Amino acid sequence: MTVSPPYDTPAPQRTLEPDAYRARVAPAIGDAAYLASLKKVTQYYVATAFIALFIGVLLGPLQAFNYAGINVYENPILKALLKSYYQGLSLHGVLNALVFTQFFISGWLLYLPTRDMGARINMKFAWGTYIMMTAGLLIAAVPLLLNKATLLYTFYPPMEGHWAFYVGATIMVAASLLVAGQVVLTWVGWKKQNPGQVTPLVTFMSVSLWMMWLVCSLGLVAEALLVLLPWVFGLRPGVDPLIAKTLFWWTGHAIVYFWLLPAYISWYAFLPKQAGGRIVSEPLARLTFVMFLLNSTPVGIHHQYADPNISNTWKMIHMFLTFLVAIPSLLTAFSIAGSLEDAARARGGRGLFGMLTHLPWKDPVVVGQILAMVSFIGGGAGGIITASFAFSPVIHNTAWIPGHFHITVGTAVTQTFMAIAFWLVPHLTGKRLVAPKVALASMWLWFIGMMFFAVGMHWEGLLGVPRRALISAVALPIYKEGYMHSQIPMALTGISGVILLLAGLSFFYVLFATLLSPRVDDAEAATPLPYSETISPAGRSLRGASPLVRATEPLLALWVVAFALVALMYGPVLMRLTQNASLVPGCNYYTTVQSEVGCNEQR
Amino acid sequence: MTQSPFKQSPVKRLTHATMEKYENVWFGIATAMSVLLAVAVFASFVSGTVPRLEGEGGAGHHLQGVVNGRVDPRNLAGTPFSKPGVVDNADGTQTVFVVARAFAFDPGTIRVKAGVPVTFHITSGDVLHGYYVEKTNINVSVIPGQVSSFTTTFKTPGPLNIVCDEYCGTGHHNMLNKIIVEAPQP
Ligand code: HEM
Ligand SMILES: [Cu+2]
Ligand SMILES: [Cu+2]
């Protein structure tokens, strides 16, 4: 047997640099003060994100109990804190899905490409965006806490929130656009300094993701600036709810990929090393990200199958394009499975079970991510069902939907971010992970809890239980006739609430105890960025690179294509809607104060 | 220099060539699956198992006061929505006009005939609501300023719950009504 040491993978045809297979090492940054500042801003983003998640997660079980038929909102202590179930749910949705993700991703994807390129970014600007994002958060938080923006984190007029909520949310999104701009421009600078070079994988993935966000966030930006703000400030006589909803889903669909892809970056680039394997193929990883850049945005109308006055043809077109988004996800499944198999083989695993048993099952970083991926298999399959025009009406807006997105964003993404935190926090701070065993347990508990949750909620949804509803307080007989068929799934959901509470508490204990512990290590040496070796690298020089690498490298051009695709898929729809716009007055029925209830006929 | 742990691997490692082969097969499967999915849904759509919404100017939208599927929610008086309810048409079919308002549908209970095409026109007088008929695949958004229209035929007699499945305020969970499907009279 001939094995060419140290790798048994000879370069195919092309002549890649011999060290292209080796794990990358982040370019050294000599300026200690700069590095410390960069790490600090990242740490602030990440810590803010997890504080938001902490509060959000504490509210989760209250909702789970509701879906178990138990109304805890009559409890006087809770009543003093939250005006209604819906206020609790709004906080839960906003903190978890908007604040946690936004802050974590902004920190994570500012830091990674910056280190990967060895770039010197303007730290004043970086701090400025953090402060701006936090300011936006605080502005939006006031009406949320006062029950003046209990909108369930949607932007569906004519249900009207306090203007401060829209202003705060807009500032938060604008801040993330500035982070995106800083990363993209840093990359453009890198390209200028390194002509003919292939963009390193992590930078490539980060930049294409930020480009995707810049395309998809336009919908939300347009909704805020052109529709919502002029309306809440009384500059417009009313609002067209359908136009607003369409703009919302332009962003609202692709935003799920904005959440997911930062997890993919970890799975592709770092998990192989953490598990002891190699990246399967860098060109394939790049193709995946390009497919998401092009294909994740122009598909949002699949969220509007139930809406009138959008043509069925456009709905069908968006459905077809949505199905194509499954391809890069399936490619990812292939790649990661390959990396893990490689890791198991490296550790002596043979056969199906050998593959499974030879992975580092004691490491919370690896276990968290593997469980997250397992959860995403179910989530992905469910996504195909929701995307289908034929199945969608059966489960649209039922409990099925929260069942679905808690195993996608609530587990695949959140649990990956949690697992990342187990190494990222030590990497940023030089502190050591407190209680790794508790960390490991928290990952299993989260996964098991979410599996219970998913089964319970999907099942309730199939039985017709609607989402976003205080069903435990329904007075009418329908509750007994209808929903009571769902005792078993209701019990599962209730149990999941308890397990998830334990999971959350153990995770946050580890995280906060680590953050508060003393600094003991030289972080750069003790916890380096976990770059992986590669089976099929992209190489460093564009000249020797494969056709796929050369085709995916011009990201700026691909970005233009992404804009064009959105214009093509949304232009005609929005044009028709604006031609037929019908403005209606704002209403607000979510506050329990009688005098504030009702529609504002004056506008 | 970091020592590669893989040299000691007692098991044969994966190679570029093997991976590439499987990768291509997998890519083919993924693409074929996506196309198949779309074809399947398209087929179910054409065969009429999906209650499709009638768009602007489509059938049933030649209603008084409704232009391009739009209606003024502040002024439903001049439209058929001023008197929500069930209309028996001359050809034996039925038309239903529903107005959703927080937190009830108007009319409260609807009686329709089994085995007969029933066309629904639904609009909202205030915020977004949902019109979800349990145990069916009827599930449409109800939007102020817009009319949602669709035609369906109820096969089996019996009561069905109507659930508002779009959050509309503190009473959202109590926004429930009924359709009673009646057996056809001989
Ligand atoms: C302790 C863990 C959690 C529990 C027990 C939990 C439970 C729930 C339940 C039962 C609902 C449905 C409420 C309803 O439709 O009325 C819900 C909604 C939601 N959850 Fe969670 N959740 C948890 C964690 C998370 C995480 C980690 C995320 C995202 C990162 C998340 C994001 C959301 C969002 C966006 C909604 C929808 C709000 C809406 O419909 O407006 N949840 N959660
Ligand atoms: Cu309603
Ligand atoms: Cu409702």
From TrEMBL, chain B:
Keyword NADP tagged: no
UniProt keyword Transmembrane present:
yes
InterPro entries documented for this protein: Ba3_CcO_II_C, CcO_II-like_C, Copper_CuA, Cupredoxin, NosZ/Cyto_c_oxidase_sub2
Q: Using the UniProt record, give the first listed, main subcellular location.
A: other
Record-annotated membrane-spanning stretches: 25-46
Q: Name one GO molecular function term.
A: cytochrome-c oxidase activity
Entry protein name: Cytochrome C oxidase subunit II
Q: Where is the Cytochrome oxidase subunit II copper A binding domain?
A: 83-186
Naturally occurring in which organism (per UniProt): Deinococcus cavernae
Sorted keywords for this record are: Copper, Membrane, Metal-binding, Transmembrane, Transmembrane helix
Q: Which GO terms describe its cellular component?
A: cell envelope; membrane
